[in-house]
Amino acid sequence: MSDHYDALETRDPAQREHDLMARLPGLVARAIEGAPALAEHLAGVAPQQVASREALAALPVLRKSALLERQQVGRAAGRDATGGFMTLRGGQARRVFASPGPIYEPESARPDYWRFARALYAAGFRTGDLVHNCFAYHFTPAGSMMETAAHALQCTVFPGGTGNTEQQVRTMHELRAQGYTGTPSFLKLLLEKADELGVRLPSLTKALVSGEAFPPSLCAWLREHGVEGYQAYGSADVGMVAYETPARDGLVLSEDVILEIVRPGTGDPLPEGEVGEVVVTAFNPDYPLIRFATGDLSAILPGASPCGRTNRRIRGWLGRADQTTKVRGMFVHPGQVAEVARRHPEVRRARLVVSDSASGDAMTLHVEVDGAAQGLAERIAASARDVTKLRADVLLVAAGSLPNDGKVIEDARSYQ
Fold it and tell me: Is the Ligase keyword given for this protein (predicted)?
């Protein structure tokens, strides 16, 4: 039995990149022709010219906050449930889900619509397994994400949903479930409840978890209790983005996404290894979100996975990119810090630190530069004042000295 879901996972990286770029113009064309809200967002874009990462990076980023606002405007104008972001018509959407906001997401009849089957396979799920699915089945698409993926592998699914831990445990025992899907913390609760009840679950040996952090300590705890857990990363907007493999070395990207890591507050791609915001273009013809900014932080790992899969990898979830904070009664955004840096070619990276002072909030802009030209700090301070309408001290530091953690704004104030 193959260790890989299909041959796509072991393609030559150059061939994969060629295939993705060849598909990209068609996705952009479908978005513009079939989704009026995306046609407005991408006004003036010639689809046939979007055939490279450089061309993709020139397109505007679609942030979650903007998606929410534009959906609301579109629905008020009489468009579909997504406000004109889907290409489906009539009864082609089998379900519509709601994420916090609310943002509405469609689901069509395409098999494995959310593309999680690949992640399940990497976690050891196989045809004939009974999967106990503890993701919610109402409002959000999480339950359907795992169920449709399990069906693509010809697994049987028990729709456990959330809550009712004692009943969940007894059902797992009686049905002899082989696998679990849900959040890692809920699986821990179920295994603790099983111990409390004296119920053995010897058949339960694997899990695909998502929706929250999965630290190594919890992974080890599950293993001690007989369950090998793997994590997947995705969102209700773009489906599965990346997944863990038996190599336990980062998360391998889905074969149907183009992922960029950009400087928070901008759409500017960062080099490999730098922490930034995850921006995803998913090849979903029904809901073709292009350059969707997830608001999550991560970084590209160098090289290929030891498991034999050749796609790029990310470090996993490293926090949130929206570091907007209020200083002296005014909001300061990561995009404003990026704008200050953009005005000065000498700046390699900038980090705004907000701290306490005797007179209230204090801002210090730490700036990496290759060489400190005379008067540079003063010029940067003037730009910061112009952009934020607040005064900031400027501290010039050596290139490479700022932490590589994706933070553009650090709130170091005490709230005790």
Answer: yes
- The class that CATH gives domain 13-320 is alpha beta
Which two tokens mark 85? 């972001």
Of 99, 30, 28, give the one whose Cα is nearest residue 64: 99
Domain with CATH 3.30.300.30 in the chain: 325-411
Assigned CATH for 325-411: 3.30.300.30
Q: Where in the chain is the domain with CATH 3.40.50.12780?
A: 13-320
Distance, in Å, from the CA atom of 311 to the CA atom of 301, rounded to the nearest integer, reads 11
> Is the pLDDT assigned to residue 1 strictly greater than 60?
no
314, 299 in Cβ contact below 8 A?
A: yes
Structure tokens belonging to residue 356 = 């306490």
334, 351 contact by CB (below 8 A): no
Measured CA to CA, the distance from residue 98 to residue 158 in angstroms comes to 22
- Mean pLDDT of the 105-118 span: 97
**Is 160:181 a contact under the CB 8 Å cutoff?**
no
pLDDT top residue among 357 and 253: 253
Q: Which residue, 283, 312, 314, 284, is CA-closest to 296?
A: 314
Q: What angle do CA 254, 255, 258 make, to 5 degrees?
A: 80
- Rounded Cα distance between 310 and 276, Å, is 22
Extract the tokens encoding 328.
Answer: 């002296």
pLDDT averaged over every residue in the chain: 94
Calculated CA dihedral for residues 176, 181, 187, 191, nearest 10 degrees = 10
Q: How far apart (Å, rounded) are the C-alpha atoms in residues 102 and 343?
A: 37
Least confident span in 242-246, 252-256, 355-359: 355-359
Among 242, 303, 304, residue whose Cα is nearest residue 278: 242
Q: For the residues 88-92, what does the mean pLDDT come to? A: 92
The secondary structure of 329-345 as a DSSP string is TEEE-HHHHHHHHHT-T
**Alpha-carbon span 125 to 119, nearest angstrom:** 9
